[in-house]
Automatic annotation (TrEMBL):
Pfam families: Amidase (PF01425)
Protein name: Amidase signature domain-containing protein
Signal sequence, renumbered to the chain: 1-19
Superkingdom to which the source organism belongs: Eukaryota
Domain Amidase, first and last residues per copy: 75-344
Record key words, sorted: Signal
Length: 570
């Protein structure tokens, strides 16, 4: 048996040796405070002498540099943690069989005094719609693409490999990143099954980058990548009480990063940003990103004395539930006490027209009679064309178009839910109506398309930029409740950057509450500066409005679809 096979077997045995919660454990829960649940049910075991629970990337680097931890050990311990938790939360879709050999290479480089940077030897995961040219599948959670071969690593994966990070595997997601259905179980895919949040296994875990966020939150991986068209990074990060960072994009689609701390999410961002000659939308970054990376903007709570934050109350805050408002305003008061200036009423221009008062609706323009003002008008057309381009480069597949995917779903109704429930699958209640809407466009960019593209981009960009200007001066950022999904939606339409910080949990559901900061195009340095300052403030005080560990509520339930529930306590 090779050392690789032996190491893998050891990791599997370690995982198998972890006890499943017994009847006595469950009885004991009744005698314990809820704050102790995660330690009773799913304790994060040490990695040798290294404390793995809530370990930061800097912690890992320090341990590897002083010889108390290796990258191979770290991968093995995350394998053990995955075996311990994944039958419950299902965050990992596929383990990378090359992970240990990559880790061994990074250990050898470190022993030879070659350390590539802060991500050297650090395990990470990526969402299953991000291509990797290795032994892993890339399927967007669909059986339709099983066995297909991608031509190359995605640019962001190649950059992370160059940085010395260790690809641990692919994460579960909402199938086809939420494009296939408009009424579905968030976090479900035919190939991956239902991803569940460790905070509450019965409710919406956030998506579409569900497994990426859930895994980071449950301490099964150091950091992860997701993708976003509209909220798919910010929403799962917020719901799972971690940091989510969505960078600037010329169009809505972008890759984002997940970490348990701002610094960890920024380390990942530093590794992936930059020009990709195969992606024309990244070319606009030229000359607009920092020469020495975003981590140079990390700071402490002392910086808050110079901050000026706006509160777009009528635009977003009035839609937040009362408990969320109480918690977030208490946190904002803490920020104000640290020296920041808070200005209420810094509204998104024309919010009455562009912000849906009825919750997230990416076809809100059409809902009010103006499809030429709807982002969905744009997204439907773009998806039809982009998926055809992507499929054209794949090998070992007969799937070449959206038409082929739709037919595959009909032919495999029991697993892929081509027809609406009850004919298809309960996770895809509306079948594949999203695909059918895209199919109907045939990818034609007509006058309505261009009007919608211009309106959604210009109205949201102008709206945010105006809100960021107070008495002729630019302010530090807009503080928003990302649980009000219209906030990340407006940022997504604009292609503007946004960060969400963990800020407590809902008492009724146990799911995370976040505090978001919005900025203008290429305003990432501001988000890094103020996000890290607020996080430092949270950690240096006894405020409860910060990241807390998962409570594993309803860990024995397996409902599909997951519940979309009102989360406030009153």
């Amino acid at each position: 048996m090779t050392w690789l096979a032996a190491a893998t077997a050891i990791g599997m045995c370690l995982g198998a040796a972890l006890p499943t919660p017994s009847t006595e454990d469950i009885k004991l829960l009744k005698l314990k405070e809820e704050s102790a649940l995660s330690n009773i049910l799913f304790p994060v075991l040490p990695c040798g002498s290294f404390k793995l629970e809530e370990a930061t990337i800097d912690d890992m680097q320090a341990a590897m540099n002083n010889g108390t931890l290796t990258s191979v050990q770290l991968v093995g311990c995350y394998v053990r943690r995955t075996f311990q938790t994944d039958l419950y939360i299902n965050s990992l879709l596929q383990y990378n069989p090359d992970a240990l050999s990559i880790a061994a290479q990074m250990d050898a480089e470190r022993a030879a005094a070659k350390v590539r940077g802060p991500l050297h030897g650090i395990p990470f995961t990526v969402k299953d719609n991000i291509a990797t040219k290795d032994q892993l599948e890339t399927t967007a959670g669909s059986w339709a693409l099983l066995g297909s071969l991608v031509p190359r690593d995605a640019h962001v994966v190649a950059k992370l490999r160059e940085a010395g990070a260790v690809l641990f595997g692919k994460t579960t997601l909402s199938e086809w990143a939420d494009m296939r259905s408009n009424n579905y179980s968030e976090g479900y895919s035919a190939r991956g099954g239902q991803c569940r949040s460790a905070y509450n296994l019965t409710v919406n875990p956030g998506g579409s980058s569900s497994g990426s966020a859930v895994g980071v939150a449950a301490n099964t991986i150091a950091f992860s990548l997701g993708t976003e068209t509209d909220g798919s990074v910010i929403n799962p990060a917020m719901r799972n009480n971690i940091v989510g960072f969505k960078p600037t994009s010329e169009h809505q689609d972008t890759v984002g990063t997940f970490g348990r701390t701002v610094r960890d999410a920024v380390y990942a961002l530093d590794a992936i940003y930059g020009l990709d000659q195969r992606d024309e939308y990244t070319l606009a970054q030229d000359g607009k990103t920092p020469e020495h990376g975003y981590a140079s903007y990390l700071t402490t709570k002392a910086a808050l004395k110079d901050a000026v934050f706006g509160i777009p109350w009528n635009s977003f805050w009035r839609y937040a539930d009362p408990e969320q408002v109480r918690q977030l305003t208490a946190l904002i008061k803490l920020i104000e006490d640290a020296g920041a200036t808070i200005i209420n009423g810094t509204e998104i221009t024309d919010y009455e027209r562009i912000v849906s008062p009825y919750g997230w609706d990416w076809d809100y323009g059409t809902s009010r009679g103006y499809p030429n003002e709807s982002e969905y008008t744009v997204v439907k057309v773009d998806f039809y064309n982009n998926i055809k381009t992507y499929l054209s480069e794949l090998e070992n597949t007969n799937i070449r178009s959206l038409e082929d995917i739709v037919q595959f779903n009909y032919d495999n109704d029991g697993t892929e839910g081509g027809h609406p429930w009850p004919l298809g699958h309960p996770a895809f209640y509306s079948g594949q109506d999203g695909f059918l809407a895209s199919l109907a466009t045939k990818g034609i960019k007509d006058e309505t398309y261009y009007q919608a593209l211009n309106f959604t981009q210009c109205s949201t960009r102008n709206g945010i930029d105006d809100a960021l200007t107070y008495k002729g001066k630019k302010i530090s950022g807009l503080l928003v409740p990302p649980d009000v999904a219209q906030a990340p939606q407006i940022a997504a339409q604009a292609g503007y950057p946004m960060i969400t910080l963990p800020a407590g949990t809902h008492s009724a559901s146990g799911m995370g509450i976040g505090l978001g900061i919005m900025q203008t195009a290429y305003g990432e340095p501001e988000l890094v500066k103020w996000g890290s300052a607020i996080e430092d403030l949270q950690k240096s005080t006894n405020t409860p409005y910060k990241r807390t560990l998962p409570q594993w509520r309803d860990f024995l339930k397996r409902n599909i679809p997951v519940y979309n529930v009102y989360e406030g306590s009153d």
